[in-house]
């Protein structure tokens, strides 16, 4: 690690010397921090929680290069100091392109969704998969008309985008999940949005290591691959999916699929899984629901109520470093606008199976006419 740090500082000093040589940009005055040994500076910066990096980058150009350097993330990994960052795909009116935001903590201890300007607009209703510190974006609509087969990989360290091999069939609104290094793309729409139904009867598979596409040899019996899926989660190499009519459990490695009618008894959507329990926030009943995937039983997390919402409000629950982040999109009838709120919740299971939750914080994170299309937790 010492050689990695020295290499970074040599390149950083060359850049600083060039800036200092410019008559229009006088060299910055050395600070107490930069007078410390090089290894100690990077070690200190690597230990700062990532939610503070946007603030730290304002200190100087040198600190900005620290927090955006891949070296910092290598050191954080070696220190075991990794954490999770929340990435939120937002459309202004559900008909425009996707723009990416990330959740940061402000000096007043409130949290706020901040746009990522270096990421270009992306297709609407694409599907998203997290792998390591990357987000894969699969397909989607261009202006609700043209459906694209494009695939992109977002590097969440450098906030850059790399185009990848295109899908065999262009789809939008599909289920895309990562199982054992392979992304399974299921269903979706290959026509205009009126039908939102794919004619593809097979499941497309993207090998993230070989960067190649294939299709499953046969589709699982007992379900229609081409139907529209409303929600999905993945855990323990199983993909749980909900359509209008049923909820299914698909095991890609075995090629099997089963109906779970108990899971389908609730209108679960935009959910996540933590310790074999599926969670989603029911905005109609103002409660956090939990489904034990092993016991196949529904329950309600006690101690969590985020307030009654107007009709048309929406929620999304994310496993955020073993805590739950619940995003609520509140419809404000008087002003005909929307507000996005977020709560961080710690859940604990007691003997007997009861699950209790504690809301650590809950505040407005974005106002104006904005619509959340997806929320992802990325390990950094």
Could you give the topology of this structure?
Elements: H1 2-20, H2 38-46, H3 53-56, H4 61-68, H5 70-79, E1 84-91, E2 99-105, E3 111-115, E4 127-131, E5 134-138, E6 141-142, E7 146-147, E8 151-155, E9 160-164, E10 175-179, E11 182-186, E12 204-207, E13 212-215, E14 229-235, E15 238-243, E16 247-251, E17 256-259, E18 272-274, E19 277-282, E20 287-292, E21 297-300, E22 314-319, E23 324-332, E24 337-349, E25 355-367, E26 371-379
Antiparallel strand pairs: 1-2, 1-26, 2-3, 4-5, 5-8, 6-7, 8-9, 10-11, 11-12, 12-13, 14-15, 15-16, 16-17, 18-19, 19-20, 20-21, 22-23, 23-24, 24-25
Helix pairs in contact: 2-5
Explain what the structure shows:
Mean pLDDT is 82; it is low at 8-23 and 25-30. It is built from five helices and 26 strands. Among the domains are: 2-79, no CATH class; 122-265, 6 Propeller (Neuraminidase), CATH 2.120.10.80. The protein has helices at residues 2-20, 38-46, 53-56, 61-68, 70-79, and strands at residues 84-91, 99-105, 111-115, 127-131, 134-138, 141-142, 146-147, 151-155, 160-164, 175-179, 182-186, 204-207, 212-215, 229-235, 238-243, 247-251, 256-259, 272-274, 277-282, 287-292, 297-300, 314-319, 324-332, 337-349, 355-367, 371-379. Helix 2 (38-46) crosses helix 5 (70-79). The strands form seven sheets. The protein has a four-stranded antiparallel sheet with strand order 3-2-1-26, with no helix packed on it. With 380 residues, the protein is mostly beta strands. Strand 6 (141-142) and strand 7 form a beta hairpin.
């Amino acid at each position: 690690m010492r050689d990695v740090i020295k290499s970074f500082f040599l390149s950083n000093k060359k850049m600083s010397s060039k800036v200092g040589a410019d008559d229009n940009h006088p060299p910055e005055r050395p600070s107490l921090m930069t007078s410390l040994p090089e290894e100690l500076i990077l070690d200190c910066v690597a230990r700062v929680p990532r939610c503070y990096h946007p603030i730290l980058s304002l200190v100087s150009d040198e600190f900005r290069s620290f927090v955006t350097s891949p070296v910092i993330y290598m050191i954080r990994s070696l220190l075991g100091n990794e954490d999770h960052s929340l990435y939120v795909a937002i459309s202004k009116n559900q008909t425009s392109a996707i723009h990416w935001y990330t959740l940061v903590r402000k000096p007043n201890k409130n949290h706020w969704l901040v746009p990522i300007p270096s990421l270009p607009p992306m297709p609407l209703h694409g599907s998203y998969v997290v792998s390591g510190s990357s987000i894969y974006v699969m397909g989607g609509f261009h202006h609700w008309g043209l459906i694209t087969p494009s695939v992109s990989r977002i590097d969440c360290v450098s906030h850059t985008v790399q185009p990848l091999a295109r899908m065999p069939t262009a789809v939008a609104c599909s289920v895309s999940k990562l199982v054992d290094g392979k992304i399974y793309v299921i269903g979706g729409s290959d026509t205009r949005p009126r039908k939102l139904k794919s004619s593809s009867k097979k499941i497309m598979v993207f090998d993230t290591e070989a960067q190649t596409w294939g299709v499953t040899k046969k589709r699982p019996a007992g379900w229609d691959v081409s139907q529209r899926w409303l929600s999905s989660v993945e855990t323990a190499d199983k993909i749980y999916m909900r359509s209008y009519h049923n909820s299914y459990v698909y095991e890609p490695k075995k090629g099997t699929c089963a109906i779970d009618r108990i899971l389908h008894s609730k209108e679960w959507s935009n959910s996540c899984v933590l310790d074999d329990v599926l969670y989603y926030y029911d905005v109609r009943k103002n409660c956090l629901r939990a489904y034990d995937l092993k016991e196949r039983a529904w329950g309600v997390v006690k101690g969590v109520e985020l307030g009654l919402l107007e009709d048309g409000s929406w929620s999304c629950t994310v496993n955020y470093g073993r805590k739950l982040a619940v995003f609520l999109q509140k419809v404000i009838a008087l002003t005909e606008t929307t507000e996005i709120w977020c709560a961080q919740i710690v859940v604990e299971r007691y003997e007997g199976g009861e699950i209790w939750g504690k809301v650590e914080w809950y505040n407005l994170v974005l106002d104006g006419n904005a619509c959340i299309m997806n929320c992802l937790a990325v390990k950094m």
